[in-house]
Design goal:
With 331 residues, this protein is mainly α. Helices cover 76% and strands 3% of the residues.
Protein backbone atom coordinates (compact mmCIF):
# COMPACT_ATOMS: atom_id res chain seq x y z
CA UNK A 1 0.00 0.00 0.00
CA UNK A 2 1.49 3.32 -1.06
CA UNK A 3 0.86 6.47 0.97
CA UNK A 4 -0.40 9.34 -1.08
CA UNK A 5 0.19 13.05 -1.39
CA UNK A 6 -1.45 15.83 -3.38
CA UNK A 7 -0.07 17.77 -6.29
CA UNK A 8 1.38 20.48 -4.06
CA UNK A 9 3.56 17.92 -2.32
CA UNK A 10 1.73 17.91 1.00
CA UNK A 11 1.14 14.55 2.63
CA UNK A 12 -2.54 13.54 2.65
CA UNK A 13 -2.36 10.20 4.46
CA UNK A 14 -0.08 7.82 6.32
CA UNK A 15 0.05 4.06 6.59
CA UNK A 16 -0.11 2.58 10.10
CA UNK A 17 2.17 -0.44 10.44
CA UNK A 18 0.11 -1.83 13.32
CA UNK A 19 1.38 -4.64 15.57
CA UNK A 20 4.36 -6.27 13.84
CA UNK A 21 4.84 -9.15 16.30
CA UNK A 22 1.24 -10.27 16.76
CA UNK A 23 0.33 -13.60 15.21
CA UNK A 24 -3.26 -14.33 14.24
CA UNK A 25 -5.90 -13.67 11.63
CA UNK A 26 -7.56 -10.30 11.16
CA UNK A 27 -10.80 -11.68 12.63
CA UNK A 28 -9.05 -13.03 15.76
CA UNK A 29 -7.18 -9.77 16.36
CA UNK A 30 -10.31 -7.70 15.72
CA UNK A 31 -12.28 -9.83 18.21
CA UNK A 32 -9.57 -9.58 20.86
CA UNK A 33 -9.18 -5.80 20.67
CA UNK A 34 -12.94 -5.27 20.43
CA UNK A 35 -13.43 -7.32 23.61
CA UNK A 36 -10.76 -5.33 25.46
CA UNK A 37 -12.26 -2.06 24.25
CA UNK A 38 -15.80 -3.01 25.28
CA UNK A 39 -14.62 -4.20 28.72
CA UNK A 40 -12.71 -0.95 29.18
CA UNK A 41 -15.70 1.18 28.20
CA UNK A 42 -18.08 -0.86 30.35
CA UNK A 43 -15.87 -0.86 33.44
CA UNK A 44 -15.00 2.83 33.35
CA UNK A 45 -18.56 3.86 32.46
CA UNK A 46 -19.81 1.89 35.47
CA UNK A 47 -17.33 3.74 37.69
CA UNK A 48 -18.50 7.12 36.35
CA UNK A 49 -22.13 6.12 36.72
CA UNK A 50 -21.90 4.74 40.24
CA UNK A 51 -19.84 7.70 41.48
CA UNK A 52 -22.37 10.14 40.07
CA UNK A 53 -25.45 8.26 41.28
CA UNK A 54 -24.47 7.13 44.79
CA UNK A 55 -24.59 9.66 47.62
CA UNK A 56 -22.08 7.69 49.70
CA UNK A 57 -19.45 8.22 47.01
CA UNK A 58 -19.78 12.01 46.87
CA UNK A 59 -16.29 12.49 48.29
CA UNK A 60 -13.14 13.99 46.75
CA UNK A 61 -11.47 10.59 46.26
CA UNK A 62 -14.37 9.21 44.21
CA UNK A 63 -14.91 12.50 42.40
CA UNK A 64 -11.33 12.31 41.10
CA UNK A 65 -11.77 8.61 40.36
CA UNK A 66 -14.75 9.46 38.15
CA UNK A 67 -12.60 11.99 36.28
CA UNK A 68 -9.85 9.38 35.88
CA UNK A 69 -12.35 6.93 34.37
CA UNK A 70 -13.53 9.64 31.94
CA UNK A 71 -9.96 10.20 30.81
CA UNK A 72 -9.40 6.45 30.38
CA UNK A 73 -12.53 6.19 28.21
CA UNK A 74 -11.42 9.10 26.02
CA UNK A 75 -7.78 8.00 25.67
CA UNK A 76 -8.83 4.51 24.63
CA UNK A 77 -11.44 5.89 22.23
CA UNK A 78 -8.84 8.08 20.53
CA UNK A 79 -6.78 5.00 19.59
CA UNK A 80 -8.83 1.79 19.48
CA UNK A 81 -11.64 2.58 16.97
CA UNK A 82 -9.07 3.26 14.25
CA UNK A 83 -7.26 0.01 15.10
CA UNK A 84 -10.54 -1.89 14.85
CA UNK A 85 -11.42 -0.30 11.51
CA UNK A 86 -7.99 -1.26 10.16
CA UNK A 87 -8.55 -4.88 11.19
CA UNK A 88 -12.09 -4.89 9.79
CA UNK A 89 -11.47 -3.23 6.43
CA UNK A 90 -7.79 -4.18 6.07
CA UNK A 91 -7.13 -0.58 5.07
CA UNK A 92 -4.27 0.63 7.25
CA UNK A 93 -4.23 4.24 6.10
CA UNK A 94 -5.09 7.28 8.20
CA UNK A 95 -5.59 10.75 6.78
CA UNK A 96 -3.09 13.45 7.64
CA UNK A 97 -5.73 15.51 9.49
CA UNK A 98 -6.95 12.46 11.46
CA UNK A 99 -3.36 11.56 12.33
CA UNK A 100 -2.57 15.02 13.71
CA UNK A 101 -5.89 15.08 15.58
CA UNK A 102 -5.15 11.69 17.13
CA UNK A 103 -1.66 12.88 18.05
CA UNK A 104 -3.03 15.96 19.82
CA UNK A 105 -5.81 14.30 21.80
CA UNK A 106 -3.66 11.37 22.89
CA UNK A 107 -1.01 13.64 24.42
CA UNK A 108 -3.52 16.20 25.73
CA UNK A 109 -5.49 13.51 27.56
CA UNK A 110 -2.31 11.77 28.71
CA UNK A 111 -0.90 14.97 30.21
CA UNK A 112 -4.23 15.59 31.96
CA UNK A 113 -4.12 12.09 33.43
CA UNK A 114 -0.63 12.64 34.86
CA UNK A 115 -1.80 15.84 36.54
CA UNK A 116 -4.90 14.10 37.88
CA UNK A 117 -2.87 11.24 39.35
CA UNK A 118 -0.73 13.81 41.17
CA UNK A 119 -3.86 15.53 42.52
CA UNK A 120 -5.24 12.17 43.67
CA UNK A 121 -2.04 11.48 45.60
CA UNK A 122 -2.23 14.89 47.30
CA UNK A 123 -5.86 14.16 48.17
CA UNK A 124 -4.84 10.90 49.89
CA UNK A 125 -2.02 12.74 51.70
CA UNK A 126 -4.41 15.37 53.07
CA UNK A 127 -7.01 12.76 54.04
CA UNK A 128 -4.51 10.68 56.03
CA UNK A 129 -2.08 13.27 57.34
CA UNK A 130 -4.52 16.16 57.98
CA UNK A 131 -7.92 14.50 58.61
CA UNK A 132 -9.35 17.37 60.68
CA UNK A 133 -8.58 20.02 58.06
CA UNK A 134 -9.36 17.72 55.12
CA UNK A 135 -13.05 18.70 54.62
CA UNK A 136 -12.07 22.37 54.43
CA UNK A 137 -8.96 21.86 52.28
CA UNK A 138 -10.75 19.59 49.80
CA UNK A 139 -14.17 21.19 49.59
CA UNK A 140 -16.40 20.57 46.58
CA UNK A 141 -15.42 23.88 45.01
CA UNK A 142 -11.71 23.13 45.45
CA UNK A 143 -12.12 19.67 43.90
CA UNK A 144 -13.93 21.07 40.87
CA UNK A 145 -11.20 23.69 40.34
CA UNK A 146 -8.46 21.07 40.66
CA UNK A 147 -10.16 18.73 38.21
CA UNK A 148 -10.68 21.58 35.74
CA UNK A 149 -7.01 22.57 36.11
CA UNK A 150 -5.97 18.99 35.30
CA UNK A 151 -8.12 18.89 32.17
CA UNK A 152 -6.96 22.31 30.98
CA UNK A 153 -3.35 21.62 31.96
CA UNK A 154 -2.95 19.28 29.02
CA UNK A 155 -4.49 21.58 26.41
CA UNK A 156 -1.89 24.32 25.86
CA UNK A 157 1.43 22.44 26.41
CA UNK A 158 0.55 19.95 23.68
CA UNK A 159 -0.75 22.52 21.20
CA UNK A 160 2.66 23.92 20.19
CA UNK A 161 4.32 20.55 19.45
CA UNK A 162 1.20 19.43 17.54
CA UNK A 163 1.33 22.47 15.25
CA UNK A 164 5.07 21.96 14.77
CA UNK A 165 4.56 18.31 13.76
CA UNK A 166 1.74 19.28 11.40
CA UNK A 167 4.06 21.71 9.58
CA UNK A 168 6.89 19.19 9.10
CA UNK A 169 7.73 17.96 5.59
CA UNK A 170 7.33 14.17 5.34
CA UNK A 171 9.05 11.79 2.94
CA UNK A 172 6.42 10.11 0.78
CA UNK A 173 8.67 7.17 -0.06
CA UNK A 174 8.75 6.06 3.58
CA UNK A 175 5.53 7.47 5.07
CA UNK A 176 4.69 4.32 7.02
CA UNK A 177 4.16 5.06 10.71
CA UNK A 178 5.86 2.22 12.57
CA UNK A 179 3.16 2.06 15.21
CA UNK A 180 -0.54 1.32 15.65
CA UNK A 181 -1.34 5.04 16.04
CA UNK A 182 0.22 8.44 15.34
CA UNK A 183 2.75 8.61 18.16
CA UNK A 184 5.43 11.27 18.45
CA UNK A 185 8.58 9.20 17.83
CA UNK A 186 7.37 7.31 14.74
CA UNK A 187 6.05 10.54 13.17
CA UNK A 188 9.28 12.46 13.78
CA UNK A 189 11.18 9.50 12.30
CA UNK A 190 9.39 10.13 8.97
CA UNK A 191 10.22 13.82 8.70
CA UNK A 192 12.46 14.90 5.82
CA UNK A 193 14.24 17.46 7.97
CA UNK A 194 16.27 17.68 11.17
CA UNK A 195 13.88 17.26 14.10
CA UNK A 196 16.44 17.54 16.90
CA UNK A 197 15.03 20.81 18.28
CA UNK A 198 11.49 19.45 18.22
CA UNK A 199 12.60 16.23 19.91
CA UNK A 200 14.39 18.22 22.60
CA UNK A 201 11.27 20.36 23.11
CA UNK A 202 9.13 17.22 23.44
CA UNK A 203 11.63 15.81 25.92
CA UNK A 204 11.53 18.97 28.06
CA UNK A 205 7.71 19.15 28.04
CA UNK A 206 7.35 15.44 28.79
CA UNK A 207 9.89 15.71 31.60
CA UNK A 208 8.11 18.71 33.11
CA UNK A 209 4.70 17.00 33.09
CA UNK A 210 5.75 13.45 33.97
CA UNK A 211 8.62 14.11 36.38
CA UNK A 212 6.92 16.98 38.20
CA UNK A 213 3.71 14.99 38.73
CA UNK A 214 5.77 11.94 39.70
CA UNK A 215 7.68 13.98 42.30
CA UNK A 216 4.40 15.29 43.76
CA UNK A 217 3.03 11.74 43.90
CA UNK A 218 6.21 10.30 45.43
CA UNK A 219 6.46 13.08 48.03
CA UNK A 220 2.81 12.60 49.00
CA UNK A 221 3.25 8.87 49.50
CA UNK A 222 6.44 9.27 51.50
CA UNK A 223 4.52 11.46 53.94
CA UNK A 224 1.61 9.01 53.89
CA UNK A 225 3.86 6.04 54.72
CA UNK A 226 5.55 7.92 57.55
CA UNK A 227 2.18 8.95 58.97
CA UNK A 228 0.72 5.44 58.69
CA UNK A 229 3.71 3.87 60.43
CA UNK A 230 2.93 6.04 63.47
CA UNK A 231 -0.61 4.66 63.74
CA UNK A 232 -0.58 2.41 66.84
CA UNK A 233 -3.13 -0.21 65.79
CA UNK A 234 -2.52 -2.76 63.05
CA UNK A 235 -6.10 -2.46 61.78
CA UNK A 236 -5.71 1.31 61.54
CA UNK A 237 -2.55 0.96 59.47
CA UNK A 238 -4.20 -1.58 57.16
CA UNK A 239 -7.24 0.65 56.65
CA UNK A 240 -5.05 3.66 55.84
CA UNK A 241 -2.92 1.71 53.38
CA UNK A 242 -5.96 0.12 51.71
CA UNK A 243 -7.15 3.52 50.47
CA UNK A 244 -3.80 4.11 48.74
CA UNK A 245 -2.73 0.75 47.29
CA UNK A 246 -5.18 0.92 44.36
CA UNK A 247 -3.92 4.35 43.36
CA UNK A 248 -0.31 3.18 43.69
CA UNK A 249 -0.93 0.22 41.36
CA UNK A 250 -2.32 2.50 38.64
CA UNK A 251 0.47 5.04 39.17
CA UNK A 252 3.21 2.40 38.89
CA UNK A 253 1.88 1.05 35.59
CA UNK A 254 1.21 4.44 34.05
CA UNK A 255 4.38 6.26 35.12
CA UNK A 256 6.64 3.31 34.38
CA UNK A 257 5.55 2.93 30.77
CA UNK A 258 5.27 6.67 30.07
CA UNK A 259 8.71 7.45 31.51
CA UNK A 260 10.26 4.76 29.30
CA UNK A 261 8.47 6.11 26.22
CA UNK A 262 8.75 9.87 26.47
CA UNK A 263 11.38 10.94 29.03
CA UNK A 264 14.34 10.48 26.70
CA UNK A 265 16.07 12.97 24.40
CA UNK A 266 15.49 11.07 21.13
CA UNK A 267 12.16 9.34 20.62
CA UNK A 268 12.51 8.68 16.91
CA UNK A 269 15.45 6.32 17.55
CA UNK A 270 13.27 3.86 19.47
CA UNK A 271 10.32 3.39 17.12
CA UNK A 272 10.67 -0.42 17.13
CA UNK A 273 10.03 -0.72 20.89
CA UNK A 274 7.45 2.04 21.27
CA UNK A 275 4.37 0.02 20.35
CA UNK A 276 4.97 -2.77 22.87
CA UNK A 277 5.25 -0.39 25.83
CA UNK A 278 2.41 1.84 24.62
CA UNK A 279 0.07 -1.14 24.93
CA UNK A 280 0.33 -0.67 28.71
CA UNK A 281 -0.97 2.93 28.64
CA UNK A 282 -3.58 2.42 25.90
CA UNK A 283 -4.93 -1.04 26.78
CA UNK A 284 -3.69 -2.45 30.09
CA UNK A 285 -4.10 0.57 32.42
CA UNK A 286 -7.56 1.66 31.15
CA UNK A 287 -8.77 -1.96 31.43
CA UNK A 288 -7.32 -2.56 34.90
CA UNK A 289 -8.34 0.81 36.32
CA UNK A 290 -11.99 -0.11 37.08
CA UNK A 291 -10.99 -3.63 38.17
CA UNK A 292 -8.37 -2.33 40.60
CA UNK A 293 -10.61 0.32 42.11
CA UNK A 294 -13.86 -1.67 42.11
CA UNK A 295 -12.65 -5.10 43.21
CA UNK A 296 -10.39 -3.73 45.95
CA UNK A 297 -12.88 -1.19 47.30
CA UNK A 298 -15.82 -2.30 49.43
CA UNK A 299 -17.69 1.01 49.07
CA UNK A 300 -17.56 0.84 45.27
CA UNK A 301 -18.67 -2.80 45.29
CA UNK A 302 -21.62 -2.01 47.56
CA UNK A 303 -22.57 0.98 45.41
CA UNK A 304 -22.45 -1.19 42.28
CA UNK A 305 -24.69 -3.78 43.95
CA UNK A 306 -27.16 -1.06 44.97
CA UNK A 307 -27.21 0.37 41.44
CA UNK A 308 -27.72 -3.11 39.97
CA UNK A 309 -30.62 -3.81 42.37
CA UNK A 310 -32.27 -0.49 41.45
CA UNK A 311 -31.92 -1.18 37.72
CA UNK A 312 -33.34 -4.71 38.09
CA UNK A 313 -36.21 -3.45 40.27
CA UNK A 314 -37.02 -0.70 37.76
CA UNK A 315 -36.95 -3.12 34.82
CA UNK A 316 -39.17 -5.64 36.64
CA UNK A 317 -41.52 -2.83 37.66
CA UNK A 318 -41.86 -1.67 34.06
CA UNK A 319 -42.50 -5.24 32.90
CA UNK A 320 -45.23 -5.76 35.53
CA UNK A 321 -46.79 -2.39 34.72
CA UNK A 322 -46.85 -3.20 31.01
CA UNK A 323 -48.35 -6.62 31.76
CA UNK A 324 -51.11 -5.11 33.93
CA UNK A 325 -51.88 -2.50 31.28
CA UNK A 326 -52.08 -5.20 28.62
CA UNK A 327 -54.48 -7.32 30.72
CA UNK A 328 -56.76 -4.33 31.37
CA UNK A 329 -56.77 -3.54 27.64
CA UNK A 330 -57.71 -7.13 26.78
CA UNK A 331 -60.61 -7.10 29.29
Amino acid sequence: MTPSGNQSGRMTEFVLAGFPNLNGTQVELFSMFLLVYLLTLTGNTLIVGVVGANNRLQTPMYFFLGNLSCLEILITSVIVPKILSNFLWRKHTISFAACITQFYFYFFLGASEFLLLAVMSVDRYLAICHPLRYPLLMSRAVCVRLALACWMGGVLPVLGPTVAVALLPFCKQSAVVQHFFCDSGPLLHLACTNTRILEETDFILASLVIISSLMITATSYVHIILAVLHIPSTSGRQKAFSTCTSHLMVVTLFYGSATFLYVRPSQSSFVDTNWAVTVVTTFVTPLLNPLIYALRNEQVKEALKDMFRKVVAEVLGNILLADCTHKKTVR
